[in-house]
Every structure is written in C-alpha cells, then in structure tokens.
Amino acid sequence: MLKLGILGLGEGRSTMSAALNSSKIELKKICDLNEEVCKKRAEEFNFHAYTTKYQELLDDQDIDAIAIYTPDKLHATHVKLALEHGKHVVCTKPFIDDLKDANTLLSLAKRSGKKVLVGQSSRFFEPMKRQRADFEKGLIGELITIEGYYHADHRWFLDKPWSLENNFKWLYGGLSHPVDFIRWYLPNIEEVMGYGMLSSNGKQGGLKHEDTMHFIFKAKDGRIARVSGAYTGPVQPVMRDSEMSCILRGTEGCSQADYMDLRYAITTSAGEEQIITWEHKLKHYFRFEGKSHHAGEYQNYLEYFADSLAQGNTAYPDIAEGIGTVVLLQAMDRSLKTGQPVKLRDLYEEYSLGISL
Ligand SMILES: NC(=O)c1ccc[n+]([C@@H]2O[C@H](COP(=O)([O-])OP(=O)(O)OC[C@H]3O[C@@H](n4cnc5c(N)ncnc54)[C@H](O)[C@@H]3O)[C@@H](O)[C@H]2O)c1
C-alpha cells in the first residue's frame, strides 16, 4: 500500500475520493492552508487527519508520497520541499509554470532517488487509454498526424481568486492536457507557432492572458500536429463535440478519443468502423456533481504509480517527460508573445536543459 498525503484540497477532493476507494493506497493525512476547506473535506469523507501546515506532511515518517494540488505557481516550491524530505511526488498538471525551476527539480529528484509522477490526468481516462492501446497494437498503422483540443466553458473557474492573478494562464492550465497528447505520440517536437487572444468574455471576467488559442507543431521527422483551446464561452452539445478530444490519423486507420460521454471511435485498416462508450464506468469517472472533477483518472494514475513503485519501475509521465511538456508550453507562450515560430532547442539551451529530455 502506498501511504499518501494530499496537499491542496480543492481538486485534492477528487484525490481523496480516489485514495479512499483504492486498495493500493492508504490515505494518511490531508493538508490545506484554509482550515474551513480541511473541515469540509474531513466531514465529507469522514476522514479527520488534517493539518493546515505542509511541514506536518513533510515531517510525517509514515507518509511515502505527497500528492500536490495547489495553484500552478506553487507547484515548483511544493515539489522541491517534498523531494528534500525524501517523499515520492505526484504533482498535478501543469507540473511547473516556469522553466527556471526545472534544473533544480531534475537534479534534486536524481539525488534523492525519489520518483515523480506528473498527473496528466487525461491520459488516464478510459477512451484515451483505449486509443493508446489500439495505437500500440498497430490498429491504425503508422501515425501521420495528430490533433488535440480542449475547449470548455470555464467561466465558473474565474471565481477562484488565483485564476485572475497575472501568473495564471489558460495556456498552462488548460492546454497542458492536449499538449501532453501531442508529446505522448510525437515526443520530438522541434518547432511551434500559434496565435492567441483574450476574448471579450475573458476580459470582462478579469482574466489577464489569452483564453483562446490555436497552435501548430513540427516534429524532427517532419510530421505535424495541431492543438487548440478556448475557455470562456459556451461549447457545443457533447454528442456533437466533446470538450476534450484526441484524433490520431494513421497510414491504416484513424481513431478519436473523446472526454465527454467516455466515447471512442476507430476506423481500422479493414475498413471497420467502431464506436465504443463505457456506460458502466461513468460512476468510476464522475463521482460528484457534474463532470469537472477527475476522481476516476486520479485513481487510475495513483494505482499505476503505486504498482510502479512496488515493482521498482518508473511511472510516466515522469519528471523528465513532464518538464519536456513544460518546455513546449513555454515555447508556445513565447510564440504568442513574438508572433513568430519558436524552436524548442533555444529554450533547452537557455535553461541549460539536456537536449535528451
Ligand atoms: N484534470 C486535472 O488534472 C486538474 C483539474 C483541475 C485542477 N487541476 C490542478 O489542480 C491545482 C489546483 O486547482 P484547484 O482547481 O483545486 O484550485 P483551488 O483554488 O480550488 O484549490 C487549491 C487549494 O490549495 C490551497 N492552498 C494554496 N496554497 C497552499 C499552501 N501553500 N499549502 C496548502 N494549501 C494551499 C488553497 O487553500 C485551495 O484550497 C491546479 O494546479 C490545477 O491546474 C488539475
């Protein structure tokens, strides 16, 4: 059993549910700066071991791993502290939001011998898992191109004060999901360019940075991909357009994994068309009200992490892969600012990151 502490109990609520429902995880203690939030979660799950001091999780010898769900800008500090105290780490996306912290974390992880799993939750969602398995079986042949998107009416998110701060960007908070899909299939992206804008809804809501973005990518081998995101306006009905989706176009077939409705479709080389949904798993994935929480995906990745640790294997995305995605996000950010294509090599050099990341 992996003995877990959880930091940050907004989205960490889903992690509590995941841990308390898993035979592979033992939840030891939860932590949030805000005591009211601690009390609310303690009540909800009848789990009363809470603290408002992160140091208490760090000093607890009975905790093997800390799962971090604090606002984006705090991840680097919280991951660093966990590694310094000899804990394994699960950190939600975006892993970090500035590459200036990357080298410190990479060398600390190496020195401590502790493992880091980046919680790119969407990889652990049923349709995306099936798409990956079919791809690995060769059902669509060789990948030609990939398209990912994540569009959502996230106006409700603007009630969180940190979403209106200057350091919050939907580029990191939202696009980290489809960008992770791109790197999962095309890890060697060498150049990116894109355009973005802040919509009138976003401006009115108090957002400081782009909430509407389109990007294209070029991999070293010449293959291309694209990603888009829009976060502050209505979306299409789910049956017409799932909010998050990943489309793989291959030499022999094509597949699409949709977040909403747990939907997956594939056309194979034999010309067979199949659409699959997982009605019986809806309750695993969507446990509370609505569909904007991720307890099922978190349970999947926490159990994968527990198994990997028990077997002495690395769980992915690990710290290097997670930082690789942040390099890409930061390159996208630079392209928005300059209006020019950006080469990832420049960022690897500027931040003295090994190009093998
Ligand atoms: N699909 C996903 O993987 C997914 C979904 C939603 C959110 N997230 C991520 O989870 C993180 C948190 O988002 P959220 O929506 O829960 O935000 P939130 O504001 O609802 O919750 C964050 C919590 O962290 C607490 N906190 C802040 N600083 C702290 C500190 N120093 N020590 C202890 N607690 C502290 C706050 O009191 C708050 O309760 C973000 O990085 C976000 O991107 C991931």
Written overview of the protein:
This protein is α/β, with parallel strands linked by helices. The chain folds into two domains: 2-122, NAD(P)-binding Rossmann-like Domain (Rossmann fold, 3-Layer(aba) Sandwich), CATH 3.40.50.720; 123-278 and 324-343, Dihydrodipicolinate Reductase, domain 2 (2-Layer Sandwich). It is built from 13 helices and 15 strands. The protein has helices spanning 12-20, 35-45, 54-59, 75-84, 102-112, 126-136, 170-173, 176-185, 200-205, 282-285, 295-311, 319-338, 344-350, and strands spanning 2-7, 25-31, 50-51, 65-68, 88-92, 116-119, 143-151, 189-197, 212-219, 224-230, 244-250, 254-258, 263-267, 273-277, 342-343. The strands form two sheets. Strands 14-13-12-11-7-10-9-8-15 form a nine-stranded mixed sheet. Strands 3-2-1-4-5-6 form a six-stranded parallel sheet, sandwiched between helices. The chain starts with a strand and ends in a 7-residue tail after the last helix. Nicotinamide-adenine-dinucleotide binds at residues 7-11, 31-34, 37, 54, 69-72, 74, 92-93, 119, 121, 160, 162, 173, 294.
Summarize the structure.
The chain is α/β, with parallel strands linked by helices.
Give me the secondary-structure topology.
Blueprint: E1 2-7, H1 12-20, E2 25-31, H2 35-45, E3 50-51, H3 54-59, E4 65-68, H4 75-84, E5 88-92, H5 102-112, E6 116-119, H6 126-136, E7 143-151, H7 170-173, H8 176-185, E8 189-197, H9 200-205, E9 212-219, E10 224-230, E11 244-250, E12 254-258, E13 263-267, E14 273-277, H10 282-285, H11 295-311, H12 319-338, E15 342-343, H13 344-350
Parallel strand pairs: 1-2, 1-4, 2-3, 4-5, 5-6, 7-10
Antiparallel strand pairs: 7-11, 8-9, 8-15, 9-10, 11-12, 12-13, 13-14
Helix pairs in contact: 1-11, 4-5, 8-12
